[in-house]
UniProtKB/TrEMBL annotation:
It comes from the Bacteria. The keyword Transmembrane helix applies. InterPro entries: DUF6223 (IPR045770). The chain crosses the membrane at residues 34-53, 65-84, 96-118. This is DUF6223 family protein. Pfam families: DUF6223. It comes from Pseudonocardia alaniniphila. Keywords: Membrane, Transmembrane, Transmembrane helix.
């Protein structure tokens, strides 16, 4: 290795780090928010399912089931749309991985919310 190459390496690394950046842009923000909504729908749906089974004494879980269905639907639709419109593959910074997670969590939250809603109708 030449001395010139060794001296130039730190500057090249600094330029590539500054050009690549570690900021969260709109490409990652939208699927991250959708994934958080999907995660909230899974948690709320699980709590509603537990309430509809009669494990807790307060409420029948119907409102939580509806909230889980709506949040899961929003997360799945936003994740699916972002996944369809994402340019590039995984690791490009376009938020494709977050969109896949949002779609999966949204669908899981919708299924759990639907089960809780069906169970709350049956017990009411």
């Amino acid at each position: 290795m030449s001395v010139r190459l060794l001296l130039a390496t730190p500057a090249a690394v600094q330029v590539s780090v500054a050009a690549g950046g570690y900021d969260i842009g709109s490409g990652r923000t939208v699927p991250t928010v959708a994934a958080v909504l999907g995660l909230i729908s899974v948690v709320v749906g699980g709590l509603a399912l537990a309430r509809s089974a009669g494990r807790t004494g307060v409420g029948n879980g119907r409102n939580g089931a509806i909230v889980a269905l709506v949040l899961g639907l929003i997360g799945a639709v936003v994740g699916g749309l972002h996944m369809a419109n994402s340019a590039g593959g995984l690791g490009t910074g376009n938020g494709l991985a977050g969109a896949i997670v949002a779609l999966a969590l949204g669908l899981i939250g919708m299924v759990i919310g639907g089960l809780a809603l069906a169970r709350s109708r049956r017990t009411a």
